[in-house]
Amino acid sequence: MRKILLVTGASAGIGAATALKAAAAGYDLALNYRSNTDAAETVAVQARNLGARVILCQGDVANPDDITAMFAQIDAEFGRIDALINNAGVVDQIARVTDLTHDRLRRMFDINVIGTMLIAKEAVLRMQAQGSGGAIVNLSSAAARLGSANTFVDYAASKAAVDIFTKGLSDEVAPDGIRVNAVRPGIILTDIHAKAGAADRIDAIGPNIPLQRAGTADEVADSILFLLSDQASYITGTTLDVSGGR
Ligand code: NAP
What we know:
With 246 residues, the chain is of the alpha/beta class.
């Protein structure tokens, strides 16, 4: 039987790459996105061509009503959930701490932290009721270790929260056979940098990474799929750096 996987933020970048690899690996998919319907539909078509049953769940992970609606859709269409990739996330424009505003911090933490936690909660409630375990992978960032001074301290702090949430949740649900891990990508070639007005960061930082290049969304997706898989059956509560040594 194909497992049911929810990927948040699946219309672009790492989420889209992971959705396609998951379809090829035998998962059926609930694909969340916020705004780019055309891109989400393209991912859905590609995943269906790889043999997956796919539903699209438009919704803002920062909005609790949208989360409720998303899981109602999953309940109605699939009636279960076996795996979750908490991938939706944002950075903001480069700023120093002295430039941060309450609005910016609210948005950052509502999406990257509270959305991640509430979606994990809904998935865990269903996995516990099903009684057959499950797997969750949260998207952290190397920023959670580095702090991102002078650029994205708020983003780094939000991802550090994801790291310790991963550990706490994993301990809580390990007795249910639910594994919870995180990946910490470094500089990965997606549009997230351009959205932050910092597309040139890849050229600036890439050569200084020990592996001397930025990573690809496919390379992160491979690590996520591994952590979801039975090959990682004894791995929980860990955070895997996918950062070229940075
Ligand atoms: P991306 O290319 O900007 O894609 C972001 C995805 O998340 C899009 O599908 C977007 O949907 C969705 N999204 C954004 N806000 C959302 C919201 N409020 N509700 C629902 N969906 C939302 O980003 P990425 O580079 O693939 O990053 C994916 C994850 O990896 C993020 O958590 C990011 O922090 C983390 N990460 C990335 C890097 C990197 O270098 N790329 C490094 C470390 C960590 P729409 O476009 O449809 O709105």
